[in-house]
Amino acid sequence: MSAPTPPRVAYLLLILSTFFWGGNFVLSRAVHADMPPLALAFWRWVLALVVILPFAWPQWKRHRLLIMQYWKVLLALSVLGIANFNTFVYLGLQTQPATNGLLLLSIGPIVILALSRLIFKESINVVQMLGMMISLLGVGVIVTQGQPGQLAQQFEHADGYGWILAAVVSWALYSVLLRLRPAGLPGIGLFGLTVLIGAIVLAPFYAYEHWVQQRHMALTAVNLLSIGYVGIFASILAFMFWNRGVADLGPARAGYVIHLIPVWGLLLATGFLGEQLMAYHWMGMCCIFGGIWLATVRGRARSGSRVLKSA
């Protein structure tokens, strides 16, 4: 068993993970005109699989009976977390600026709360419900660009919003169902298996994009480096760094760091893509992050205090 990582190093690993993930969304927007979305998603996971396969294969052999027992759960996790999530994000960022996409994606914790209530009947208190409503108000501000009276005009690119919101729901479902994963399967084995299944699921859709839609990926240095970044940094390294940080600091302290993803993404989008944050972005951001704070920090604190009083 490896020695615990010093807290400062553990936090640095978590911060680097969020930076890599934030860069993933900005990069996909930067190359959207030259890199078809399904090609980016498919080759990202193929590269990640090639790197991780030597480490995952022995675990698959050792735990093959466990894998067969949990095949339905593993298939669901692979489709939701690997095949769907990033593909939907890449499709949405074909028409939406990275700033819009990142802010919409940031409501993930709220959707996780709602789905936990719906699927596993977890309780939600009044403060958490209020936080959810405020966050959804922030989504509405961004989607309508602060002009709800002109909602019909904003739906000119509604498909982009739809894909990104579908990505949020897919990731939230993945996060909620992750508790059903086989506990005896080590992290590398689980991650590698979901990557393998996810790539297989994506393959026919990528083939359709390539052969039927005739959307081809040019073998340029920029495209190849982009695949290298999302396959190595945003997949393998981010996964390893995040898991190590969570193992050393605990999920409670590590969970708050996840909110740095949209922060890094917004900084990168304004710095490298020249995107500007408008007044409605700031309004929506305040609502979304304020709602998340209420639902995940104040809401949990209130739930905890109630449990202590009733004990």
Automatic annotation (TrEMBL):
Glycoprotein keyword on record: no
Record membrane topology: Multi-pass membrane protein
Keyword Transmembrane: yes
Subcellular location: Membrane
Occurrences of domain EamA (ranges): 10-143, 160-296
UniProt entry keywords in alphabetical sequence: Membrane, Transmembrane, Transmembrane helix
Membrane-traversing stretches: 38-58, 70-93, 99-120, 127-148, 160-180, 187-208, 220-242, 254-273, 279-297
One GO CC annotation: membrane
PANTHER family listed in its UniProt record: EAMA DOMAIN-CONTAINING PROTEIN, INNER MEMBRANE TRANSPORTER
Family: Belongs to the EamA transporter family.
Stated name of the protein: EamA domain-containing protein
Originating organism: Terasakiispira papahanaumokuakeensis
